[in-house]
Amino acid sequence: MANDKDPLNQLKNLAQLKDQLEDLQRRVESEVQAGVPQGGSLLASPFLKGFLAGYVVARLRASAVLGVAMGTLTGMYVAQNYQKMIIIENVGSDEPDPPHRRRLLQTALWAVLLVLLVLIYGSHAPLIALTKSSGHVPFSPSSCVVLIEFIKLLLSLCTVLATGNVRALWASVSWMAAAPYAVPALFYAFNNNLVVVMQAYMDPSSFQVLSNLKIASTALLYTSCLGRRLRPTQWLALGFLMGAGVCHSYSSLDPEDQDGEGEREVHITTWGLLMVLAYCIVSGLAAVYTERVLKTQHLPLSLQNSFLYTFGVGINLASHVYSSSGGRAFLEGYSAAVWVIVAGQAANGLLMSVVMKHGSGITRLFVISSAMLVNSVLSWGLLGLRLTPFFLLPVLMIGVAVHLYY
């Protein structure tokens, strides 16, 4: 013990350890230069490097036992963090920046998503017109809505199962987390039935024109309920969007066989005006409330959709049972075109939930307004309706609105 405290002996031990470390360093460097992979030998082990460093520090200050303990702990730390410690920034690489490539990919996927939504929205009305027989649809619209909600629920549940850890996911979610999704389901069911009722109090053209007020109601609720501020140019853009809807509803399409006696009477009652205002307000509330719930709850979108469409199936099934007559079967009158409508609207609902989760309800308004143009073109090509030169005005107004808002 006396020799351990002798300064001369400590100096000799330090010199020996220094020589050993220098020799170890030379041998490791030679292995690295020779291309020996990490972990391929004992000398290249990060644990050994950490152990020797810790041992030398502790051995010079205390005993060999403490040196072994300190070296072991240091070696374990170095071994666990070695991969993080050796990361070197790829400076001067000719390859594109990975985050930049990710942004480009996300932008491309977002563009594809929006184009699909516009096409699905725009094709809905022409497809329904193709299924009509003697001016009436041969199937039950309420049963169609139930099927659409059920398919969306089934696909959402399949997505939840495909992600794995289902038990842990369901165990972490309570009924209190699912309850808020009953509200938008009630809103949507209310509006679906209100659209049918209000047809007796106004003509279809008046409904198409006045329903554009939902753009204003959604924007007002978006700013007041979600606390999002819109710039003056964005408010102007939404004004252009409303104007495009009004112009399109009045003057974009004319039947080819229209003559002087084919003009339809424009009428609207006080009850009809109140109903369309209620329709626009409820539409805005449903969109804003759904967006708020989807974004405030930190849950997978597939699970959130499962909650939403569970309530949707239940409410719409009850509405179908209440309103349907006993003489018509659930799938009576379903043709290939009807199944295309069901599949398209199911995909539309799932894709729109992505927009509401990662985008905004305002983006939804632009999708619906742009779909009017697709509707016009498909109606011209499939139904023999004539496009007027005035059709270019709503096209221009929507383009200006997109430019001003984004």
Give the key terms.
single chain, two-stranded antiparallel sheet, mainly alpha, 2 domains, 406 residues
Total E-strand runs: 2
Question: What's the alpha carbon Rg, rounded to whole Å?
Answer: 34 Å
The average pLDDT is 77
Could you tell me the strand content as a percent range?
Answer: under 5%
Question: Which series of helices and strands comes N to C?
Answer: HHHHHHHHHHHHEHHHHEH
Tell the overall outline.
elongated
* Major beta-sheet overview: 2 strands, antiparallel
In whole angstroms, the N-to-C terminal distance is 79 Å
Strand order of the largest sheet: 1-2
Low-pLDDT residue spans: 34-44, 77-93, 255-264
Structural class, from helix and strand content? mainly alpha
What is the total domain count? Answer: 2
In helices, the fraction of residues equals over 70%
**What's the tally of helices?**
17
Keywords: Membrane, Sugar transport, Transmembrane, Transmembrane helix, Transport
Pfam families: Nuc_sug_transp
Transmembrane segments: 60-79, 108-127, 139-162, 169-190, 205-223, 235-251, 271-289, 301-322, 334-355, 362-381, 387-405
GO molecular function: pyrimidine nucleotide-sugar transmembrane transporter activity
